[in-house]
From TrEMBL:
This is Glycosyltransferase. Keywords: Glycosyltransferase, Plasmid, Transferase. Residues 181-316 form the Glycosyl transferase family domain. It comes from the Bacteria. The keyword Nucleus does not apply. It holds the Pfam family Glyco_transf_4. GO terms for molecular function: glycosyltransferase activity. Its EC number is 2.4.-.-. It comes from Sulfitobacter sp. TCYB15. Residues 18-175 form the Glycosyltransferase subfamily 4-like N-terminal domain.
């Protein structure tokens, strides 16, 4: 198939990844190409996944319009709207068999529904009003949606029937996260260092539990780091920088447990399955879909450092093989890509065989792809 993938344009789709959305899109493009598809990524012009990139804008928008300062402003909204207005005709004229939309912008789903463009839109975040209205308007037998967890499916579609939506969990390449049979007794935290990710709570819990902690990730909010994280750094809590590739994998695999501390409605938790693949059990703040993802390979707590310290002490005793087995069974990139390919086929077939009156027949994926 000739596939257009639209990336989120806040950050480049390139290593080192700023977050889970960038990692997902990068692996999606590479995985589809490996499976024989002709893939073009439409994203920020400073993206690099090793294949064709067509720029939606010259550089990612967070460089000029940092999200923490410009989110919801007319200036950022206008910047994005102008870019996507330029993009949509290129999608229609590009002779693509299907479009996989990861953009979180409101234009593509409505465009697909109106112009019978086969499209699969992946919803990687909790619902927000502008995009939720576009999702409600943009569903059609050829314009389908995915969420990465059952919790998010219910949130986006108000726990009602979702005839054009399906859960497709995120998947990782197990070769990038090899299993390590034992850890060194330390805890690890990785992700974007920003208040909603709860890095400070991980540091507080590790100090209470008396378990050394290494923190890895990009400092997205410098003020937060300086006031909430830096004062906690000492011999027991260390910041190791924004590692990538093998360096990050080796750092994670050495540890004995991952602290996962979302303070928002986390849609999935890619960092959790990456660590679990290496054999790390999880001590988690139970927000969002983390119990759906980690299951019995984790211990859970509320957003309280004392509770999380107790979960940390308990989680470190979970067998490492149990964490790895769960990822092998549910969260590989092969499972994810296979599920997407089924949906691509559904969207393509619907353009040629479905009348203009929307069909609300619920379709099912094979159990192996759920």
């Amino acid at each position: 198939m000739k596939i257009a993938v639209i990336g989120h344009v806040r950050f480049p789709i390139a290593r080192p990844f700023m977050g889970g959305m960038e990692a997902h899109c990068w692996h999606l493009c590479r995985g589809l190409q490996t499976r024989g598809h002709d893939v073009t990524l439409f994203a920020a012009g400073d993206s690099d996944w090793g294949g064709k990139v067509e720029s939606v804008m010259d550089v990612h928008y967070d460089r000029e319009f940092p999200w923490h300062k410009w989110h919801g402003t007319p200036e950022l909204t206008g910047h994005l709207d102008a870019a996507f207005e330029r993009l949509l005709p290129r999608l229609a004229e590009g002779s693509f068999d299907v479009v996989h939309n990861n953009s979180l912008h409101r234009f593509p789903p409505r465009f697909a529904a109106r112009h019978r463009i086969p499209m699969v839109t992946s919803l990687h975040v909790p619902p927000f009003d502008v995009l939720k209205r576009a999702v409600a308007d943009g569903g059609a037998p050829w314009s389908l949606f995915t969420t990465c967890s059952q919790r998010q499916l219910g949130a986006w579609f108000d726990d009602a029937d979702a005839p054009f939506a399906r859960v497709v969990p995120n998947g990782i390449d197990l070769a990038d996260w090899p299993f390590s049979p034992e850890g060194d007794g330390t805890a690890v935290w990785m992700g974007r260092i920003t208040p909603t990710k709860g890095t400070h709570l991980a540091a507080q819990a590790a100090k209470i539990a008396g378990i050394p902690l290494n923190i890895y990730g990009t400092i997205e909010d410098q003020g937060y780091f300086d006031t909430e994280i830096a004062p906690l750094i000492n011999e027991g809590v260390q910041y190791g920088g924004h590692l990538q590739g093998v360096d990050l994998t080796e750092a994670i695999a050495r540890a004995s447990v991952l602290l996962f501390t979302p303070l928002w409605d986390e849609p999935f938790g890619l960092a959790a399955i990456e660590a679990m693949a290496c054999g790390l059990p999880i001590a988690a703040v139970e927000n969002g879909a983390i119990r759906e993802v980690a299951g019995d390979a984790a211990r859970y707590a509320g957003a309280d450092a004392g509770e999380l310290a107790k979960a940390l002490r308990e989680a470190i005793g979970i067998p490492r093989w149990a964490a790895r087995e769960r990822v092998e069974r549910l969260f590989t990139v092969e499972h994810m890509l296979g599920a997407y390919e089924v949906l691509y086929g559904r969207a393509i077939d619907a353009v040629g065989h479905v009348s203009d009156v929307p069909s609300f027949e619920v379709f099912e994926l094979p159990p192996a792809l759920i």
